[in-house]
Amino acid sequence: MRRKAKIAGQPPGTMVFTGEKKVENARVTMIEYDESFSEEKEVQNVEECVPAKKKSSVYWINMDGLHDTRLIETLGESFGLHPLVLEDIVNIDQRPKIDEFEEYLFIVLKMIMYQNDRGKIDTEQVSLVVGKNFVISFQEREGDVFGQIRERIHMAKGRIRKMGADYLAYALVDAIIDHYFEVLEKTGEQLEALEEELLSDPRPETSAKIHGTKRDLIYLRKSVWPLREIIGNLERGESGIMKSTTRVFLRDVYDHTIQVIDTLETYRDMISGLLETYLSSISNKMNEVMKVLTLIATIFIPLTFIAGIYGMNFQRMPELGWRWGYFTVLIVMGCIGVAMLIIFKKRRWL
Question: Terminus-to-terminus CA distance in the chain, angstroms?
Answer without folding.
Answer: 54
